[in-house]
């Protein structure tokens, strides 16, 4: 009929499995992002801990996952690792408010396709999930300062040393207490 208006498409997702696991311990953010992703066509399962995330994966491995890096009961990378073991084709991204290059590299090694800083909105998350492997990221408008590059290097070595302060200080030829003071501070801009 003439007066009928076609309903807008729910999303531009590719056909197929639209199951998504969303893991974050910030419950208001988890609910808000979960609703927004459902409105865009995903079948969302939420979890607010590593244990719940792993249990959700055992119940049914999703095609997509959005996981916070730091959770109340552990590291979100454990959730990525559990999903990668049961579903190799899952597209995963990491959200974090504590971003650094070392954890981003670890996340990518575990199969994450992107690493987003919080707060990320649903459009950014979907853009990262559906990003084609051949597309290149835009260069940053504001490159890192020298202090930030130094801090990132220290964080990378710290992660490589499995968060052992003494070993990290030895490898960086730095006094252990100096390293502890650097690690206790926020990342420079």
From TrEMBL:
Record's keyword terms, sorted: DNA-binding, Phosphoprotein, Transcription, Transcription regulation, Two-component regulatory system
Extract the InterPro entries matched here.
Answer: ActR_PrrA_rreg, Bact_response_regulator, CheY-like_superfamily, Sig_transdc_resp-reg_receiver
PROSITE patterns assigned to the protein according to its UniProt record, in alphabetical order: RESPONSE_REGULATORY
Sorted alphabetically, which Gene3D superfamilies does this protein's record hold? Answer: 3.40.50.2300, Homeodomain-like
A Pfam family reported for this protein in Swiss-Prot or TrEMBL: Response_reg
Extract the GO molecular function terms from the UniProt entry: DNA binding
UniProt-listed SMART domains? REC
Question: Metal-binding: present as a keyword of the record?
Answer: no
Q: Might you name a Gene Ontology BP term for this protein?
A: phosphorelay signal transduction system
Q: Which domain of life is it from?
A: Bacteria
Q: Residue positions of the PTM 4-aspartylphosphate?
A: 68
* Location of the Response regulatory domain: 19-133
UniProt protein name:
ActR/PrrA/RegA family redox response regulator transcription factor
Taxonomic path: Bacteria, Pseudomonadati, Pseudomonadota, Alphaproteobacteria, Hyphomicrobiales
């Amino acid at each position: 009929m003439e007066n009928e208006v076609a309903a807008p498409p729910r999303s531009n997702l590719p056909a197929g499995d639209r199951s998504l696991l969303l893991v974050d311990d910030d419950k208001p953010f988890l609910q808000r992002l979960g609703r927004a992703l459902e409105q865009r066509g995903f079948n969302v399962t939420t979890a607010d801990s590593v244990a719940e995330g792993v249990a959700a994966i055992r119940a049914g491995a999703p095609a997509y996952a959005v996981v916070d890096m730091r959770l109340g009961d552990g590291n979100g990378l454990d959730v990525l690792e559990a999903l990668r073991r049961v579903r190799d084709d899952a597209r995963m991204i990491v959200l974090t408010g504590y971003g650094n290059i070392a954890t981003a590299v670890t996340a990518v090694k575990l199969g994450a396709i992107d690493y987003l800083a919080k707060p990320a909105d649903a459009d950014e998350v979907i853009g990262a999930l559906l990003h084609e492997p051949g597309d290149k990221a835009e260069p940053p408008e504001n490159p890192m300062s020298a202090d930030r590059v130094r801090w990132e290097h220290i964080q990378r070595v710290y992660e490589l040393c499995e968060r052992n302060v003494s070993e990290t200080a030895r490898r960086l030829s730095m006094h252990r207490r100096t390293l502890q003071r650097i690690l206790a501070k926020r990342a420079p801009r």
